[in-house]
Specification:
Elements (H helix, E strand, L loop, with lengths): L5 E5 L11 H9 L2 E4 L2 H10 L6 E3 L6 H12 L4 E4 L12 H9 L3 E5 L4 H9 L6 E6 L4 H9 L7 E6 L4 H12 L4 E6 L7 E6 H10 L8 E5 L13 H13 L2 H12 L3 H15 L1
Parallel strand pairs: 1-4, 1-5, 2-3, 2-4, 6-7
Antiparallel strand pairs: 7-10, 8-9, 8-10
Bound molecules: S-adenosylmethionine.
The site of S-adenosylmethionine has 23 residues, from helix 5, strand 7 and strand 10.
């Protein structure tokens, strides 16, 4: 009975080579084949760690035979580690077709987790991370990019984008058009590297800094944009009730405003409470 090989999906550093994991090194040393999007680039990484490997080029847009060849190797019992140029494979990087086909054939696919720019940026940006939407790269062309951003106008989750340095200024401009210049954002640059920088502020402020300083347009970038705060539907609270809330909140704490207004208007207390919080934060 032949034992089938295992496909390992191995994350590699996004800049600082010290971020390679012990498990990643063990797997890269032990597998029969390392599949990489750019074999020359990855060869340097392997050399750095003294690993000699049989390399195989892999892109999602390779012809089907490239995927087929790797699947055949796995079927024959060879083990394969898939790596990308940096970070976690399949995260804005090749690998989807291979993993999909391997799973479809009932082969064993094992993740070896490690760095990814999206998680690295979120972990230190100081924005809410309870819920986020990873948007990958925005389209390169202005019209398509503006359309993608407009579609996210009412997204309430934190949004994360990968961006290239030569498009960042235009993307910030289009983001300002979609979300307004005052929307909070963070631009994380050169994560884990010497010139690691976090620019935080409104989209307008970040664009000004990026336009004024060409260093801010260098290297690798992750743009994080805060989601739109979920707001109480304004048509639920009529104008009189809204005015009542505004008057009461000048004199009373939030809880009391909500409870008094609920008695007067008959509207639900928690809805009014939520609206008072919004009115207070609009003021601040
Ligand atoms: N698979 C990778 C990952 O897990 O993050 C992403 C690969 S994608 C082709 C490359 C993009 O990721 C860059 O253009 C940039 O937006 C982001 N990125 C990668 N490394 C980064 C770093 N050190 N600092 C900031 N952004 C980075």
């Amino acid at each position: 009975m032949s034992t089938k090989g295992v496909l390992y999906i191995v994350a590699t550093p996004i800049g600082n080579l010290g971020d390679i994991t012990i498990r990643a090194l063990e797997i890269l040393k032990s597998v029969d084949v390392v599949a990489a999007e750019d074999t020359r680039h990855s060869q340097k990484l392997l050399q750095h760690f003294g690993i000699e490997a049989r390399m195989h080029a892999y892109h999602d847009h390779n012809d089907a035979t490239a995927v087929g060849r790797l699947i055949d190797m796995l079927e024959q019992g060879l083990s394969i580690a898939l790596i990308s140029d940096a970070g976690t494979p399949l995260i804005s990087d090749p690998g989807y077709k291979l993993v999909h086909d391997a799973r479809h054939r009932g082969l064993n696919v094992v993740p070896i987790p490690g760095p990814s720019a999206v998680i690295t940026a979120l972990s230190a940006a100081g924005v809410s991370t309870d819920r986020f939407s990873f948007e990958g790269f925005l389209p390169a062309k202005t019209t398509a990019r503006s359309k993608s951003l407009s579609a996210l106008k009412s997204e309430s989750r934190t949004m994360v984008f990968y961006e290239s340095p030569h498009r960042i200024s235009e993307s910030l401009r289009d983001a300002i058009n979609a979300f307004g210049g005052s929307r909070s954002a963070v631009l994380a640059r050169e994560l884990t590297k010497t010139f690691e920088t976090f620019l935080a502020g409104s989209l307008e402020e970040i664009k000004q800094q990026v336009d004024a300083d060409e260093n801010q347009r260098r290297g690798e970038l992750v743009l994080i944009i805060k989601g739109e705060p979920k707001r109480v539907q304004r048509d639920v609270i009529d104008e009189n009730s809204e005015n009542l809330l505004k008057t009461l909140l000048e004199e009373l704490p939030t809880k009391q405003v909500a409870s008094l207004a609920a008695k007067i208007t008959g509207l639900p207390k928690n809805l009014l409470y939520q609206r008072v919080l919004e009115l207070r934060s609009d003021d601040s």
